[in-house]
Amino acid sequence: MQRDPGPRGARRALGRLLEAVLASRGEANAVFDILAVLQSEDQEEIQDAVRACSRLFGALLERGELFVGQLPPEEAVMAGSQGATRKYRVWMRHRYQSCCNRLAELLAHPSFQVKELALGTLMKFVRLEGAHPLEKPKWEGSYLFPRQLLKAVVEGLLSLEEDRSLLLSQFREYLEHDDVRYHVMQAVTDTVARVASGHPEVPLAFWNNAFTLLSAVSLPLQESDLANFYVKRSELSDKWKVTHLKEHRRAFQAMWLGFLKHKLPLSLYKKVLVIVHDAILPHLAQPSLLIDFLTRAYDVGGAISLLALNGLFILIHKHNLEYPDFYRKLYGLMDPSIFHASHLPAYLVAAFAKRLARLALTAPPEALLLVLPFVCNLLRRHPACRVLVHRPRGPELDADPYDPDEEDPAKSRALESSLWELQALQRHYHPEVSKAAGVINQVLSVPEASIAPLLELTAFEMFERDLKKKGPEAVPLEFIPAQGLLGRPDDLCAQHFSLG
């Protein structure tokens, strides 16, 4: 391909090739030049080529110029006696397949911009293939969807080598569509089974990517909500599984059970168990099937055992599961280590409380109304740290052992200090701040204070709220009201700043 120097010249050259291929079948060989740029090492050239392929094959799909049906070998067709139109469509379908394969490879490109563009282009082709199928229907009105192309996208997202969480976050928007979500669940089930059976030790990156994708799948609660389809249809048939919520729940169940039956990294056991009661159990067709995973998780020990028993309790309480060993296992967990498995050490909590209190000395009022209740909540939740406010013979302020410059909280000596900063803030000029700081003088046995309403509080809102407060109707100040700024009614200031 003859390219002009510079990115603009290359872009113009791609544009000319694109227009030529779309205008005349006699220029079809120029597709090779476009596809060649997809192999470039230059990031901008690759992006230009991806955009050109998007326009080219998008137009060919819409125009029906790609072969429809089981794709035959290219050599046999080109050497045969079939008509020119059929040869062209088979030949161009092979070029389209090469393009899709390369786009799937680009999901692993070092540049996130290239990955994102490749993903968007592949999903555009999914939508167009759905509207203009490249397979023949088995019967009139049968449901057609580009499952293989979407499966290639899923396999690219579930990398074995690198964390794809950022790209997966971009993919979440497609999971809002019912048909995409349904086929993604099936593709994930197949991919996890294939990878797990083909590798003696599955890499951690794959499990993390798979969990990120699985946890992004959220099913609708009612069948009437199944109305958001990525591939637009003139009408939906009741014969299609994709239109029934029970089929979505079956696919959801198969996906999660297929994932959870394998030996997962310990970090994933915790992540799954944290979301199991809200995001997984309510959508399973048969929730009791999760008992095998929960039993294995219990055997891991420590905090994971506690989380697993929580899941078992939900199955017993809400799904009528009979599990006679539940209380025996719960009783067996009651040893001294249970108090250390799921709680933070006191020195760490004290370090955070002390750091927040020190920063509060210079914080604006709207921030203090959020920070002070948060510090008090820390003390409520961790009684071992209440020594910070009950140390009457603590060090003087100029001898505070706390080291604010120490990066390691374990070495900051916060637990040896006190929260004298909160006592100082009890004399703050803003009455709401002084009131919030004064809470530490009370017994901290009441429920935690909710800080949710304070998360978005601004200085302007505080000012507006203070202006709306109503004071006493009449406050006696002096026997003779002041008439001027400096007390004399005839001075210069009184003429401009009269208080009367």
Structure report:
Among the domains are: 1-136, no CATH class; 346-468, no CATH class; 474-500, no CATH class. The chain has 22 helices and no strands. It is mainly alpha-helical and 500 residues long. The model is unreliable at 337-341 (pLDDT under 50). The protein has helices spanning 7-23, 30-37, 43-63, 74-79, 84-105, 112-131, 147-157, 165-171, 178-198, 204-215, 245-260, 266-280, 291-300, 302-319, 326-332, 338-341, 346-360, 365-381, 420-425, 431-437, 459-468, 492-496.
What is the SS-derived class?
mainly alpha
Shape, please?
A: elongated
Main sheet properties: none
* Euclidean distance between termini CA atoms: 87 Å
Number of strand elements = 0
The rounded Rg comes to 33 Å
How much strand? Answer: under 5%
Secondary-structure element order, N to C: HHHHHHHHHHHHHHHHHHHHHH
Share of helix, binned: 55-70%
